[in-house]
Amino acid sequence: MGEKMKYILNDYGKRCRFNAFCKTVLRNEAKTYLRDLGRQRNRETEFSALSQHEMDKLCTMDEYPSDSVVFTAYGYALHIRDELVADAFANLPEQEQSILILYCVLELTDGEIGGIAGMSRSAIQRHRTKTLNELRKDLKSKGVRN
Hints:
two-stranded antiparallel ribbon; mainly alpha
């Protein structure tokens, strides 16, 4: 029983230690996995819980030059996507188009637009309000909502 038995017992002891080591490693890996999964679950938010503003941040839309009609005045461009609005805008005289482009794109005041266009502030205001009312009326008759 001597040498061979010592070898078998020694080999059995090594296997037991190796099995114990493997079980410890697997148990710790499982704990790490579950901990990481819990952390991930805490950081994640369901889409249904997001506000519309947050959802809009996640959305992108490709824009192509052919998707809009471009009107320019004094080097500034106004892009209009809606065909009915673009048609109504195209039917305006060039001076009114220029005033609205400066007003909508650059958000300039009537006095600033008057300085660029060479007109008085009151004339710009009169043209702008008249033109916007005409556009509104024209678009309402075509069924476009505000």
